[in-house]
Amino acid sequence: MRYYTFSEFLKKRYGKKVWKIPVDAGFTCPNRDGTKGIGGCAYCNVSSFSNISTDEIKDQILTKIAKLERRKINKFIVYFQSYSNTHAPINIIKEKIESALVDDRIVALYVGTRPDCIDEEKLEYFKNLSKKIDIVMEYGLQTIHNVTLQKINRASTFEEFDNALKLTRKYELPVCAHIILGLPGENESMMYETVKYLAKEKIDFIKFHHLHIVKNTKMCTDYQKGKIKLLSEDQYIKILAHSISLLPENTVIARVVGDAPNDFLIAPNWPANKSEFLKKLNNYMETNNLFQGKLKQC
């Protein structure tokens, strides 16, 4: 491969196949509950939030493990994926996180959250937990450009991400940054500036998402009015390939393209097939002699 894939990282770290188990722990979001904003990010479809008990968290994980065992998979990562999984008092966070530790074969916890939902008390807890199990903090950056963040009603700033990254590094915890390529009003140069910032910071993991439009969102309304133009698959692959080339060789490329349930997806209609998308990306990088680290800055 021309970039450092997540599967390669897992094999190097754990010596065998590891499967990620996504968990909905019932957390909310400060951009929806009125803590910071109202209505949520313009691209996000959330009709309601649920109050999920610790027993339900255990059940989600044990049910998935039972299915994976039948496929001879016996190492797992629990991924607290839905919404902002540190947006709560520390005692609630502890209860929900520790309720996930239901099997000795769980090798890591990945915690998805917003950078404005983290502080030293929470990071100290995760640092102590990391002595028993691997911890990765996943923060949604989306873009470094505050003008774009305002446009998409993010109710968060680039500076908040930068502060969260520095604070998390203080506690020696690895960070995965999520970014979206193709946000409204952004040109290629702006997208590369976001990647260059993460490259300069030597980000541990990165997830690339393409902008997609889902039902019942502010962005869906704007798209249907012709106010938003989406990247084509070829345009996205070009930008993605050059973005990967800007990153240090040891940054793990945890995702290269987003997805959304077909029942909710409005546009775009790609990728039709993830395997074919990966082939196209690899072919583009080969044809243009691009590889991770080629364009990194000193």
From TrEMBL:
GO terms for molecular function: 4 iron, 4 sulfur cluster binding; catalytic activity; metal ion binding. It holds the Pfam family Radical_SAM_C. PROSITE patterns: RADICAL_SAM. Keywords: 4Fe-4S, Iron, Iron-sulfur, Metal-binding, S-adenosyl-L-methionine. InterPro entries: ELP3 (IPR039661), Elp3/MiaA/NifB-like_rSAM (IPR006638), Radical_SAM_C (IPR032432), rSAM (IPR007197), rSAM_horseshoe (IPR023404), rSAM_sf (IPR058240), YhcC-like (IPR005911). Its cofactor is [4Fe-4S] cluster. Residues 13-249 form the Radical SAM core domain. This is TIGR01212 family radical SAM protein. It comes from Deferribacter autotrophicus.
